[in-house]
Amino acid sequence: MKPRHWGLLLSFLALVLLPILLSGWYLWMRADDQYASTVGFTVRKEGGSSAADIFGIASQITGGSTQSDTDILFEYLQNQNIVEAIDTEIDLVAHYAQNHAHNPLFSLPEDANLEEKVAFWSKIARIAYDRAAGLIEVQILAFDADTAQAIAQSVLRNCQELINKLNATARQDKIKYAQEDLTLAVERLRKSREDLILFRTKNKIVDLEADLQGRLGVVNTLQQQLAEALVEADLLAINTSGSDPRVVQSTNLINVIRARIEAEKANVISGNTDVIGDDYPTLLAEYEGLVVNREYAEQSYRAALAALDVARADASRQSSYLAAHLEPTFPQSAQYPQRLTLLGLVALFITMGWTILVLIYYSIRDSR
Predict the structure, then answer these.
(1) pTM of the shown model
(2) pLDDT class for 52, splitting at 50, 70, 90?
(3) Does residue 38 lie in a domain region?
């Protein structure tokens, strides 16, 4: 045994064996038993098709999916909000600081602030999240079984309240947006009907298409009368001479009918002289545009009204809910701290650290 060998032995005793013995003494003599209560849940969505799927609106209104709701819950379980919510129901300091005097490593300080509670929460709440299945499992550690189960129940209750809040917000947004669309559709329908009434009042025409059909009907009647007059004139030409007064009268009748037909055709094209406005083609084009706007506004109004009914129907039921596949368990025995496992880990890492230091020492010694 050379001096360096004695130095290695002393360093092993001081840096490895002594910390392991101290850790074992603390784990078996100071660390209090902890009970574990486990709760497991996931977010489920109501199955079956709804009226919203028929109208093609559900995918645009519903927003998030159950997977995103589960992700929100997973983040919620690790942040400050759930610690504050549970602390209002169960005094965390009163329970976890009661053994702080002799067990500071596994206890909460008596004067712990909110940040210290949040940091300590990661020690007593072990969260497992299976993203593929969407399952969350939370294990709560406490110094007695009743408190562990009470905190687990509080976790489940607060997660359910969060899902209900998300559902309430989604339902309010559905009805709000559907109501806004309906208001816009009503205003558009009112404006289109008002424009059509102003057009009719300005041009003194109730129904332009009916008025045009009436004018064309006059032309058709005159053409029928012209055909009858021509037939009558042909009969007179066969049976009488050209100086017969009936022939002259028939010829005058034919000329008058033809003149009236031309006047009516011009009236159809240019409109009445007593009507203030443009010619019939321009009026007809403007009228058709107003009718199209009214029909579009009516269809938009019916669609918006149906969307509002769908939104109200969806709002009447809870679209997502928290399903607990594992209710908060009541532990029968203390499973934590896992003393042998912790002692083994301490021994492993301390020995590895001491070994690295020895290797560094011999590396420096050999390089000289």
Answers:
(1) 0.62
(2) very low
(3) no
